[in-house]
Amino acid sequence: MQVVRAERWCVELDDAGGKHRDDVWFRVDAQTYAQALNVNEGKKITFTPHAEGC
């Protein structure tokens, strides 16, 4: 098997890091992305990003 292109899973957060940073994108793993899909806007989510930006 050959990896042609790595998957990119990204989430956008408001008030990122509790520092009122809005509309910040983070690259995350697939499990974190699935978790974020089930969180209502305005609710807190905690995760360790792979990178900032997407």
Describe this structure in words.
By secondary structure, this protein is α+β, with helices and mostly antiparallel strands. It is 15% helix and 22% strand. The chain has one helix and three strands; from the N terminus they run ββαβ. The protein has one helix at 30-37, and strands at 9-13, 24-28, 51-52. Strands 1-2-3 form a three-stranded antiparallel β-sheet. The longest helix has 8 residues, at 30-37.
Structural key phrases:
54 residues; alpha+beta; 15% helix
At a glance:
This protein has 54 residues and is α+β, with helices and mostly antiparallel strands.
Query: Would you report the number of β strands?
Result: 3
Determine the N-to-C terminus distance.
Answer: 26 Å
Order of helices and strands: EEHE
Helix and strand content put the structural class at alpha+beta
Regarding quaternary structure, how should these chains be classified? Answer: single chain
Overall form: elongated
**Count of DSSP helices?**
1
* Range of strand content: 15-25%
The radius of gyration computed from the alpha-carbon positions, rounded to a whole number of angstroms, is 12 Å
Major sheet, described briefly?
3 strands, antiparallel
User: What's the helical proportion of residues?
Assistant: 10-25%
